[in-house]
Amino acid sequence: MASRSIRSAAPAPAPARPPTQIDVINLSLDDSSDLANNASLPRRSPSPQPARLETTNARFCLIDEAGSPSHTPISPPQKRPGQSSFHSFEPSRPSQPTFRPVQKVTTSNGKSDDAQDMARSSGVRHPNLGHQQAMPSSEHHIKDGHARMTSYIIESTKPVERRVLTCKDLFAGLSSKPTLADEADTMRIKFKEHSKPKSNKREDYYEARPIQTDEERVPRYRFHHVEIKKNILTPNTMLTFVPHLRDLESCEESKYNVWLQELEDIDRKSGFKPMSREEKVRVTVRSEFASTVSLYLENWLDRLRLPGCDKSTLIRHIANRAPDDAITPRQKSDILNAHRPAESSTPPEANRAVEMFTEAFHRVFYQNESSTKQIALRDVLLLDESVDSIMDTKPTAKNGSLSLNENEFEAVEFNLGTYCILGCLICFSHSCEHGEYDASNSKRSLSMLPRLSDTLRRRRRIPSDKANVANGHSPNPCKRSCYHTSTTSVVDSAQRPWTPEEHIVMRSMIVTADHSRVKTDPFCIVAHLLDRDCRDVFHEYERLGIRLPPREPVSKAPIKTVSWYDRFKKALIGDWENRTRSQEHQQRKLIEPCFHEGPCTKENCICVQYGYLCEKYCGCTVENCAYKFTGCACHSQGKTCLAKQKDRPCICVQLHRECDPDLCDTCGILERADPENAEDELIHATGCQNCSLQRGLTKALALGQSQLEGVGYGLFAAECIAQGDFIIEYVGELITHDEGVRREARRGDVFDEESNISYVFTLLENEGMWVDAAIYGNLSRYINHASEKSSGDKRGCNITPQILYVNGEYRIKFTATRDIQAGEELFFNYGENFPNLTKKVLNHKAGEMSDEAKKRTRRPNRADHKRGVARKAPKSDKKKPGKGKPASHQDLEDEDLEMYESPEFIPKLPRKRKREVQDDSEEDEYHPTATDATGSCTGSPSTTDLDFGPLHDTYIGSAASHCLW
């Protein structure tokens, strides 16, 4: 540890006797020459202090061995008092630290009431010191280390190898001399230093010499994307940097600052705590300073050689002193266990040394530093990898220890707690892209916890006709000395001893595999996993006395089939469209599986209450649930699972979902969904055709300049596409409604609102799930808008999006509505709610603001600020009525009214998902700062606006949901 180079006066040595307690520790890091010649320096006599209880005062100075390794760059020897030069070498030093026991001079209590007395006891002077006295030696170490690192980087940098020019240099004759402002073809450059007053500005003009080429200009665009194959689950984020629009004029800075304040208000009303730019600077500087100090901490502790005071001791000390709101009991326990001392006992003076070190660190790096660089010892220790990994993780298992009285089900749930929380039931992996982020911005996966013990308990409630079947299947002996065939009860003594970890694996595997769909005996599985004899596993199981609860044979009470769905015939019957909402994915209000006792009814099953079929992730079974979805019953001969087929329709196609390899066992989906067979045309020529997204084979597409004037890029077909063929999937970041609104507001241009563009697509409206393809996506983000005109018009809509349920995920699929020739541009109808619903959401909230709020934030030129999305809409075309859907009325002439007067269509505001039933007034908690509630939703875009990128407001809002089916 490095503190200010100030030492306490050395008292006269007392009669030699073993030290009993440490009361004063000098934590100064003096220069090497000073320490080496300590005996020759004059010493001041200690100031008289009142007599205290008889203990010992030990003084520890920095003593460095010659040639000892160092963790950080060592600074040059410090200058001795009265000298004008530095010593380059250090004399030899003893290997043991200087230890002088003296009479007690301070109280043994480390918590002194007098601040100045504590400063003296810690070896650090009072903060009110002169400039020369206040210069700590720690700064010399840090600055010298930085200087050495900088020098090393500069010296080790290799020069860039220049390529030899073999042709004419087009820029050889260009000069950089300023010219006059009134000359033609000039370029203005503004110079501004933000640390200087506003008057310190200058402008220079340079001659601009354009180079004319024969090549056509590349269309302008924004947000160059990163190619991804599947949607990425993204948490809610606040504004982390100031958006840069362009160089601002002096008259525009105030308007720009108001816009930044509005963006911070949006974050604040969404639950974040944004900081001002000044606060961000302070936090950044403190973080960087703490990181720098952390590089030197261990080296300082090694050089001080305090008894029992190392980095692990400091971490344990900080963990014990941390308040309850800063650390959980589990985190504290993990930190203490990770930094448990290797020795059975620590020196008696270690606690005192740690307290004095902590106090000295506080005075040096907090009290004696500027407000920008004030750091605490806890800030430095939290950067340790072992501490950071513990503090950063979410709880992965229930707290507490396993009780011996718990049954085997509870024990397995305790041992597999981490897998239950992190394990995903969709992909069976950890830290995947499935799940969602809740209101506290914590990821929630579709996992087993806390239902594992209940699931195991219910699995043993078997029908009476299967009570004598072991593990659900007839046992077959294994080839590892299986206990089924072994006649001896004596275990081979050559077997290695069992470890606690192996006991956990054995208990967990036997309990979870019992009476499951695993066809192998659990003891045989454990023998294979642990590389042991099967009879050895069985005898160890018997020796531990592990006993599963007895099975509960139950009578097989038949559950009647509902009138509109037959789970055994796998078919929908009659007016099923009026009985269920399972096919309305965008309007879905529930995505969590049900889990309850007894058969699924409207009284106890949440799926039935919302009008959905129970999925394979639900806790119910086919035997006790009349609403259990069981897949399709299509045959695998010829092409099947089509939208229109001669036989009875495929139930998966009817419910807008792809066939499930776990449920649809007759249509051949299992083989065709295998990624190994994705490009095997022979296999896909027959069998299930309802697996396009699982297959993942898109059509050949090309990016080019759109045939629409001024819209930028468009997407073209590079091969002929037949009607109904799958083209591409719309992918991006899965975000919440609130996050989408904030992103649209940040991407807006406060000075040119018509140039705003949007790449958000509503996936689940009621759940508040959007797909944002601005940064992460694929070529589908470049598909432009067109109306549904005649099929002969090549500039009309030729593809359509559809939301499908695919193996627990909701995905967006584009298919061709007609035959498309190679070279044609792809268009789809963004919907009659185009340009998007974001503006409507924001303007609706703005209209509810009080007049006082409007007056406080009045800015008449920001009428559409709350839109946050593009307004590059062409004239809205009248949408053709779909099957079973009434035609929408013509758009109202009043631009302020954006709702349509359809009797069956009332657009709902996308809202963030709420777990419990909450009052509608809670939605008003999020509303960005408004300036004017009025604003036009439609309008003719200007060429300049559309030149920023493709005509791409891919927000399929409530009205657009009519064209998805």
From TrEMBL:
One of this protein's Pfam families, by short name? SET
Q: Give me the stretches of Basic and acidic residues compositional bias.
A: 845-854
- The CXC domain extends over 567-684
Q: Which GO terms describe its biological process?
A: heterochromatin formation; methylation
Composition bias (Basic residues) maps to 868-883
Alphabetically sorted, this entry's keywords are: Methyltransferase, S-adenosyl-L-methionine, Transcription, Transcription regulation, Transferase
Give a yes or no for keyword Manganese in this entry: no
A GO cellular component annotated for this chain's UniProt record is:
nucleus
| Compositional bias segments (type: Polar residues) | 81-110, 931-945
Q: Record's superkingdom?
A: Eukaryota
Q: Where is this region: Disordered?
A: 1-53, 65-137, 845-950
In which residue ranges is the amino acid composition biased (Low complexity)? 1-11
Q: Which residues form the SET domain?
A: 699-831
Name of the protein described by the UniProt record: Histone-lysine N-methyltransferase EZH1
User: Which organism was this protein described from?
Assistant: Fusarium oxysporum f. sp. raphani
